[in-house]
């Protein structure tokens, strides 16, 4: 019996579960594997389990415990994994994300429309879907001319496809006009290159001489933007401010205060000419503030090794040709791109099959490689191949990539062949963006749910239940208290009940933003009856003792920390509150319970145990390390555990890769613990006493 297609391997760390299930169902349909008979259902289960990576299988086994995957029905396995990877979402939270969406400056109109459709998929708009999509598309545009054109359309006739067509036409017209106005603008920033320490001269040229280049060399450059096509007095950038010195009237590339090392390398076969300008090192960072200086940049084929956390800080303009070398790989002459931003060397699968697969076999690799943009590369395996350059031969480790665009020589090649690197300052912005993209579900803003176990409140024996009437709520706060109670019920934090032996009055506190926060006054009821959990909270001196020699710090803060932990059914009845709207019980851990800090601290410590350099004080997490590479490794591991546990973080209170950080009212850096100046400001700036 022939088999149509193949089932891809599902990796829970990189792949999307919903997509894998869809591919799996298509495979079943193509091969006639239904779920009518027991034999077919067993076959479905076997194919599903066999399509999992080891990490995915372990996760499935943990989710199904005490049952085993092999003894569980196929549909039950799918349901368990659906609940883990695609939990039920709050419709209002998803709609808030949808209505807050705006077009990103780097996003095309088509990509923006596709993103809106993805956001709308969980909003349950029903028959109003087309209208909502069209409205959000038009109102979220970042181009005034496109919005203005669409505002003239009849809203009753305008559909998303029509709006997309109009917006794309406006975008295309603007691009053509912009290209015509700035055809000769310099669109490249210095790019990090390498040079060989061996003697290298251009054929017929002189070392250190001026490079011959084409272009309009006779016309004077505009002192504002550097173009030769117009005079300074009519430059469209003359009213902008410099990103380097802040002065108005020129761009950063024409700033007189700018000194840098710029290596101009031209290649002709194996010959490289290097020219050095003033300065000692380059500092490169890819940020949105430089878009006016390099409007057309795109990441080069950088590869990032997730194990050794190698950095990628290079950008390449589309008009800049890549640096290539002709090398001999196992007797085959290949033109390969040299990339100092890549920690490894790589071969596309087509080249592997064309030249080397007949006599060699690939070894397995447990590494995961990512492109600059964060997309995972599919590896077929690895191999060692002899590489000859300048009559010198070394064995180089190559990773074979399924859809690799070009053969790549990374820093491992440069190190063995004695290439020199120009100093490049470490930059954490791209790494932070990668981390936030990889763990975007952690920062989605919803209410997390700790999925390891439920918390239990233990009462002393022989305790008599106490029931208190509801306290009167001030008239000015009554509507706000009612609204807050409704919000907590919608979020699943509160649950209305009609009867309870326990009832505590509430305390309503007015916050700075004029909202109210509701607490149960448990000091009058169950706090005296609880068996106190003696799990200790760490002291600041104990926390800092483990941070010796650490230079890099990150801080994480849980969103609605206590509310992310579920209480078991028996414990919920003890948390009952009595309000002007009736009785409610908390389904989750709540502030005001005397046991709450100890229960929360114990759960967090158990979750993060075994990771060095990580300290936890309730919902404030501190991650520290002596080196940048080790620091990001620890951050990645902590975020992975938090995500797997179902917890959520508050992005506005998280900070990554800091040389010093504020934690628990103190400032911590490589030199130790310091008082926070803001905390002692009132004392240090107090007026000197005039009398005794």
Can you describe what's shown?
28% of the residues lie in helices and 18% in strands. It has 692 residues and is an alpha+beta fold. It has 4 domains: 17-85; 91-181, no CATH class; 186-205 and 220-427, Cathepsin D, subunit A, domain 1, CATH 2.40.70; 475-675, 2-Layer Sandwich (Alpha-Beta Plaits). A 6-stranded mixed beta sheet has the order 9-12-11-7-8-13. Helix 6 (109-120) crosses helix 7 (129-139) and helix 8 (144-151) packs antiparallel against helix 9 (160-181). It is globular, with a radius of gyration of 31 Å. It comes from Parnassius mnemosyne.
Number of helices: 18
Query: Which geometry do the CA atoms define?
Result: globular
Number of domains: 4
Name of the CATH first level of the largest domain: Mainly Beta
Give the class from helix and strand content and strand pairing.
alpha+beta
Rg from Cα: 31 Å
Mean pLDDT: 76
What is the CATH superfamily label of the largest domain? Answer: Acid Proteases
The CATH architecture of the largest domain can be named as Beta Barrel
Our measurement of the CA-to-CA distance between the termini, rounded to an integer number of angstroms, reads 101 Å
CATH fold annotation of the largest domain: Cathepsin D, subunit A, domain 1
Catalogue the unreliable spans.
Answer: 180-218, 259-319, 422-427
Taken as a percent bin, the fraction of beta residues is 15-25%
The strands making up the biggest β-sheet line up spatially as 9-12-11-7-8-13
- By DSSP, the count of extended strands is 26
Largest sheet: 6 strands, mixed
Biased composition (Gly residues): 205-218
Protein name: Reverse transcriptase domain-containing protein
Domain Reverse transcriptase: 490-668
Pfam families: RVT_1
């Amino acid at each position: 019996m022939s088999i149509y297609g193949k089932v891809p391997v599902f990796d829970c760390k990189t792949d999307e579960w919903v997509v894998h299930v869809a591919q799996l169902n298509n495979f079943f349909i193509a091969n006639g594997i239904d779920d009518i008979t027991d034999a077919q259902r067993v076959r479905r289960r076997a194919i599903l389990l066999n399509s999992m990576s080891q990490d995915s299988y372990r996760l499935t086994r943990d989710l199904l415990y005490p049952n085993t995957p092999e003894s569980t029905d196929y549909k039950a396995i799918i349901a368990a994994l659906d609940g883990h990877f695609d939990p039920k979402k709050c419709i209002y939270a998803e709609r808030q994300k949808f209505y807050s969406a705006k077009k990103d400056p780097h996003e095309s109109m088509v990509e923006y429309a596709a993103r809106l459709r993805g956001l709308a998929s969980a909003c349950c708009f029903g028959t109003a879907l087309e209208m909502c999509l069209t409205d959000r598309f038009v109102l979220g545009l970042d181009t005034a001319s496109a919005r203005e054109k669409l505002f003239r359309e009849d809203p009753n006739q305008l559909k998303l496809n029509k709006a997309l067509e109009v917006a794309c036409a406006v975008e295309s017209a603007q691009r053509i006009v912009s290209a015509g106005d700035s055809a000769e603008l310099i669109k490249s920033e210095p790019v990090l290159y390498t040079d060989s320490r061996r003697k290298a001269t251009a054929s017929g040229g002189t070392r250190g001489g001026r490079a011959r280049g084409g272009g309009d060399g006779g016309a004077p450059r505009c002192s504002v933007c550097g173009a030769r096509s117009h005079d300074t007095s009519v430059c469209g950038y003359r009213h902008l401010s410099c990103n380097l010195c802040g002065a108005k009237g020129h761009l950063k590339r024409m700033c007189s205060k700018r000194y840098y090392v710029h290596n101009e390398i031209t290649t002709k076969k194996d010959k490289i000419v290097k020219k050095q300008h003033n300065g000692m090192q380059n500092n490169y960072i890819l940020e949105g503030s430089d878009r006016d200086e390099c409007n057309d940049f795109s990441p080069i084929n950088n590869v990032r090794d997730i194990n050794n956390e190698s950095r990628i800080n290079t950008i390449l303009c589309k008009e800049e040709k890549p640096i290539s070398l002709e090398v001999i790989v196992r007797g085959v002459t290949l033109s390969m791109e040299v990339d100092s931003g890549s920690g490894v060397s790589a071969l596309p699968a087509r080249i592997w099959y064309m030249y080397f697969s007949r006599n060699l076999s690939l070894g397995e690799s447990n590494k995961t490689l990512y492109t600059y943009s964060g997309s995972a590369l599919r590896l077929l395996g690895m191999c060692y191949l002899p590489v000859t350059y300048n009559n010198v031969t070394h064995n180089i480790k190559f990773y074979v990539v399924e859809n690799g665009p070009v053969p790549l020589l990374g820093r491992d090649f440069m190190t063995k062949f004695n290439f020199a690197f120009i100093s490049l300052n470490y930059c954490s912005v791209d790494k932070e963006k990668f981390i936030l993209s990889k763990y975007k579900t952690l920062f989605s803003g919803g209410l997390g749910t700790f999925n390891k176990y439920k918390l239990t409140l233990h009462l002393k024996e022989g305790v008599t239940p106490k029931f208190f009437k509801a306290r009167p709520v001030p008239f000015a706060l009554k509507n706000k208290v009612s609204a807050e109670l409704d919000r907590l019920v919608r979020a699943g934090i509160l649950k209305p009940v009609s009867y309870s032996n326990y009832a505590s009055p509430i305390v309503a506190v007015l916050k700075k933003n004029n909202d109210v926060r509701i607490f149960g006054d448990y000091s009058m009821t169950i706090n005296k009856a609880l068996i106190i959990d003696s799990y200790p909270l760490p002291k600041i001196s104990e926390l800092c003792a483990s941070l010796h020699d650490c230079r890099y710090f990150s801080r994480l803060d849980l969103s609605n920390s206590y509310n992310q932990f579920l209480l078991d059914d028996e414990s919920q009845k003890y948390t009952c509150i009595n309000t002007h709207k009736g009785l409610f019980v908390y389904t989750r851990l709540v502030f005001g319970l005397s046991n709450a800090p100890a229960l929360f601290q114990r759960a967090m410590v158990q979750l993060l145990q075994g990771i060095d350099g990580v300290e936890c004080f309730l919902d404030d997490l501190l991650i520290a390390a002596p080196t940048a590479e080790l620091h990001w490794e620890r951050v990645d591991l902590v975020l992975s555990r938090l995500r797997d546990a179902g917890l959520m973080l508050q992005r506005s209170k998280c900070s990554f890769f800091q040389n010093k950080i504020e934690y628990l009212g103190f400032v911590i850096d490589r030199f130790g613990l310091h008082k926070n100046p803001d905390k002692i400001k009132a004392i240090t700036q107090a007026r000197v006493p005039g009398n005794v």
